[in-house]
Give the backbone structure.
Amino acid sequence: MHDAATHDDSKGQYFWVWGALLALTAVEVVLGYKQVFEPVHMLEVLLMLSIVKSALIIGYFMHLKFEKALMRWLLVISVTACFVIMYFFFFPDAGRILRLGVQ
Amino acid sequence: MADATLQHDAVQHGLPGAYEAPLFGAYSKKVGMWLFLASDSLTFGALLFAFSYNRIYTAWPTPFHVQSIINSTIMTGCLLSSSLTMVMGVFAAQRGDRTWTRYWLLATMGFGTAFIVLHGMEWSKLIGEGLTLPIFPKPAHAAVGEMVDISKNTPQFPATFFGLTAMHMLHVTIGVIYLGVIAFRKSFLPVLGVLWIAGYFLIPSDNVFHYGIHVLGLGLIVATIIMFLKPKDYDAQDVEVSGLYWHFVDLVWMFIFPLVYLLSTKIN
């Protein structure tokens, strides 16, 4: 459990994080609305923005930033490793289908 | 803080040094919730990868017009705001201010409920237009148009869209029930029961939520069993752990919103 006094002193930072999340959402909507990029680039840009937003949520709202380094790194590395494995499992196959077509 | 608590307990039991310091420097409930969330993130990760996989190799439809984008943006705002009110609730609980803890949790539940209602309306609109799955009840009036064609020609779209968003909506619903139990304990159970019964009788039988509302019934049964088997006064740790779950629900939507909605817009 965190020290309540420490958090109370820095409540303002959570409003900043909330504002930043709303602003990033607005950027995403404008990019989607204007269809600024080609679909593949759009996917990359939107995913990058989502990763930034999720880092803000995990770090500040879920307080992972204030946890012990061991817990922080163990959780981040293990979950990221699983996603990387999923990526290498799924996407080369999807690309193969694109190149060769569905038989 | 957790170290200090454990050491304090050990001293109280007259066993100084009997307890090993926690590896993660956090109480067990919090570590348990983090482990659950790590496993749950893989569930959503698999669903999002499946969605993206289908999107890459299929001629993917882009059926979401301005109305859907506005609706989903408001839903995103609701979830982001609910995370802020949840943080305020955790602070209030840590201060020992029970009244404000309840108010903040109630505000969080309100935003969550608004999200569910808006999402339900979106689903009903899409199903009414013909975007449907074979397991859904048949609407009273057969639809014609773009959505019907999508369901017929690209069944992967409704399958992945409804699968992904239903899983998320289920998590939000469980989150609202969880927060209700933490904030109001046994007083929340009759409210949940009334919402379940009212929803079942008020939602038309050709609407998918006529059956989906039974999630509230299941939630009521589980919450009742927990409340009667282990009645307790939930403390700041419980509020913080419930907050972790709630923020996770918000976090998942940050990926669903751009992947499912913004990449399937038909604006121009």
